Amino acid sequence: MFTRLVTSALFAGFVTGLIAALLQLVFVQPHLLHAELYESGQLAHAGAAGSPAHVPSEPFDIQRNGLSILFTALIYCGYALILVAIMSLSEDRGNRITPRQGLVWGVAGFIAVHFAPAVGLPPELPGSAAADVGLRQTWWFSTVAATALAGWLLAFGTSWRAWGAAIVLLAAPHVIGAPHPDTFTGTTPPELVGLFAGAALGVGLAAWVVLGILSAYFWKNSADA
Amino acid sequence: MTTVLAQINTKTATLLFTALLGLSVITFAGHIQAATLHDAAHDVRHATGFPCH
Questions:
Q1: Which of A88, A76, A109 is nearest to A209 (CA)?
Q2: Which is nearest to A77 in space by CA: A127, A7, A1?
Q3: Do A77 and A10 touch, CB atoms closer than 8 A?
Q4: How many Å lie between the alpha carbon of A122 and the closest alpha carbon of chain B?
Q5: CB-CB under 8 Å, A32 with B47
Q6: Does A133 map to a domain?
Q7: CA A122 → CA A119, A154, A176, distances in Å?
Q8: C-alpha distances in angstroms, A192 versus A133, A181, A195?
Q9: Mean pLDDT of B17-24
Q10: How far apart are the C-alpha atoms of A68 and B45, rounded to whole Å?
């Protein structure tokens, strides 16, 4: 069973990671590189005077982007291991796992690990002011765990007690609030920050839909070794 | 009965272990702040919405 869990997760995670990396390089990375020009001081945003909305694209950095592809694949393999384990748990309780259902699992996963944390801590561009990284990571992990558990309770709960607990879990991280810095010192134009956050969330949704479908597909089509 | 219980426990342990393995991979690739790891995963951490720096 362990072999089946790991092989289906690795297949699904690795393929998703490659797709996610490609989407990130095309849609997210240009905003990130643009922002680094402000972080390093090569560009300065002067408010009303404006700054260029388009900068020449940088040559493809094989080492930097190669590492990005590798780490994206790693991260989605990690997510797939957790996703397939939870799918299998739900299957033991009578839920059928099909690729069509995997789509819903993928959207739920996106909400748990991208969207819910982004409500308090939107994807940050390099150079943004932020609170202590340890505090943000604690809030991030707590929010993901609470939202994922809420998703399970909403989907598989059968009583108002379960659904009520889900609503409390969904709201709690945002009522408590994410850690934010005392002062905002970002030098990047706000338009760029918005473009980056939107693109990062869009790519996250696309990747998670693929991850959900593929995880269900490989889990369904692999046999116990 | 004992065999059934043992099977259930093994299954739960396997699922838990698989999920923990996944969590370790996420923590390693996305959250540990060691300089080398941070630099290598920098762009992905920003693009994936992990808290970075």
A1: A109
A2: A7
A3: yes
A4: 7
A5: yes
A6: no
A7: 6, 25, 16
A8: 22, 20, 5
A9: 97
A10: 9
Q: Is residue A142 in some structural domain?
A: no
Q: For residues A13 and A19, give the distance between their C-alpha atoms in angstroms, rounded to a whole number.
A: 10
Contact (CB, 8 A) for A33 and A58: yes
- Inter-chain residue contact B47 with A137, CB threshold 8 Å: no
The region of weakest confidence among A28-42, A49-63, A108-122, B24-38 is A49-63
Across the range A201-205, mean pLDDT stands at: 98
Domain that holds residue A24: 2-128+186-220
Does residue A104 lie within any of the structural domains?
Answer: yes
B32 inside 8 A of chain A by CB: no
Q: How many CB atoms lie within 10 A of CB B16?
A: 12
Q: What confidence tier does A224 reach under pLDDT thresholds 50, 70, 90? A: low
- Whether the pLDDT of residue A46 is over 80: the answer is no
Residue A106 lies in a domain: yes
What crossing angle do the helices spanning B2-30 and A62-92 adopt, rounded to 10°? 160
**Dihedral sign from CA coordinates of A80, A82, A88, A90:** negative
Greater confidence, A123 or A44? A123
Contact at CB, A201 and B49, closer than 8 angstroms:
yes
- Counting the structural domains of chain A, the total is 1
pLDDT of res. B1: 67
Residue A90 near residue A97, CB atoms below 8 Å: yes
Q: Which of B44, B45, B53 best probes binding to A when mutated, by most A CB atoms within 10 angstroms?
A: B44
